Amino acid sequence: MAVATPPYASDALAEGTVDAVVIGGGAAGLNGALILARSRRSVVVIDSGSPRNAPAEAVHGLLALDGTPPSEILRRGREQVRQYGGRVVHGEVVSAESAAPSVDGDLRFTVTLADGRHITARRILIATGLTDVLPQVPGLAEHWGHSVVHCPYCHGWEVRDEPIGILATGPASINHAYLFRQLTEDLTYFTHGTDLDEDSRARFSARGIRVIDTPVTAVVDDEDGALAGVRLADDQVVARRVVAVAAPMQARTQGLEGLGLPVQDLPKGRGFASGTAGATEVPGVWVAGNVTDLVAQVGASAAAGALAGADINSTLATADTDAALHAIAEASPEAATR
After folding, report:
1. In angstroms, rounded to a whole number, what is the distance separating the alpha carbons of residues 338 and 334?
2. Do 27 and 77 meet the contact criterion of CB atoms below 8 Å apart?
3. Burial category of 107 from C-beta neighbours within 10 Å (exposed 0-12, middle 13-18, buried 19 and up)
4. Predicted TM-score of the model (pTM)
5. The predicted structure's pLDDT at residue 214
6. How far is the C-alpha of 108 from the C-alpha of 226, rounded, in Å?
7. Mean pLDDT computed over every residue of the chain
8. CB 176, CB 149: distance < 8 Å
9. Distance in Å from the first CA to the final CA of the chain
10. Among candidates 52, 66, 244, which has minimal Cα distance to 130?
11. Which end of the chain is more exposed for a tag (fewer CB within 10 A), N or C?
12. Percent of the chain surpassing pLDDT 70
């Protein structure tokens, strides 16, 4: 379920060619932009304003910032990028593709927004994040990020000792159950049509994890609208205060098809393939954060953005030197050969 960040003032889209366009205004994108801006690169962040963690009340497990609302971390990030001359533009990218190179052979890309505006960049960093694909159970999405959770490290402490239900989506849910068992003694595993082998059932029994094979048909709320349990296909209601779902994750790739980036199937979903520092097989394009590392938390995503930003700056420094040599050669062919 998409949730937008609070409104904020958008910078004007830069004219001419910029050193880098960052597509995605979350932790990875903003930290990449911060590194580039501090390196005196012209950088523009395109932010659609719908980060994955927007429904959450706070970010957890992030040293020195544990408990900080996601919107506040992003607000500070935008402010810091702008402090060094970077721009943050609210907009949705509908296409990104290679353009004709510069006269000295340097790469160029064109990024087009939904309102028709476009910008030309020498390099692109993609940090669009991912989407959690929730099971189609009525009432589940409405509690996403609060009483319906996915990560024991992001939300586990806050739901400790509560009656928790694991709504299985596949094999990954088995380990999910062990992690949440660390947080509560009242854990029920709803197989929901997935296979659960006898060995896992025995291990669950040893840990006091109840298994229910009857499919779940809906999430039930109490009179105040809080999650109260799940309804089964036989109409029985199993009281639960929290439901944990290891939802498959899909990288946000819309509008980026023109770049021809390779994707890969991972144990927990699908994302862009990447190499060292987020470099892709497509020259001039990097990826960082959840769009390539599906399980990265905020800190890891920010670190990946920083590494990608530094690598982009390094390639730009080499390209700048190549351009300087090209200019000398054009002005004086004899001088270039000395």
Report:
1. 7
2. yes
3. buried
4. 0.93
5. 98
6. 51
7. 95
8. no
9. 63
10. 52
11. C
12. 97
User: What is the C-alpha separation between 46 and 40, in angstroms, rounded?
Assistant: 18
Helix H, strand E, coil C: the string for 291-336 is: HCCCCCCHHHHHHHHHHHHHHHHHHHHHHHHHHHHHHHHHHCHHHH
DSSP for residue 59:
B
Query: φ, ψ for residue 210 (rounded to 5)?
Result: -75, 140
What b/e string do you get for 213-251 counting C-beta neighbours within 10 Å, with b at 16 or more? eeebbebbeeeeeebbbbbbeeeeebebbbbbbbbbbbb
Q: Looking at residue 291, what DSSP letter applies?
A: G
Q: Cα 104–107–108 angle (5° rounding)?
A: 110
Q: For residue 311, give every residue at least 6 positions away whose Cβ sits within 8 Å of its Cβ, in sequence order, or none.
A: 276, 277, 278, 279, 286
4 C-beta neighbours (distance < 10 Å), count: 11
Token code pair at residue 171? 């094999």
Residue 128 token pair: 């669009």
> How many other C-beta atoms lie within 10 A of the C-beta of residue 1?
14
Question: What token pair was written down for 16?
Answer: 């001419």
CA pair distance 276, 264, nearest whole angstrom? 16
Q: What is the pLDDT of residues 307-338, one digit of tens each?
A: 999 999 999 999 999 999 999 998 886 655 55
Burial tier of 147 (Cβ tally within 10 Å: 0-12, 13-18, 19+): buried
Residue identified by tokens 């390639």 is 315
Mean pLDDT of 292-308: 97
Least Cα distance to 137 among 127, 128, 148 occurs for: 148
Q: Is the dihedral of CA 239, 243, 248, 252 positive or negative?
A: positive
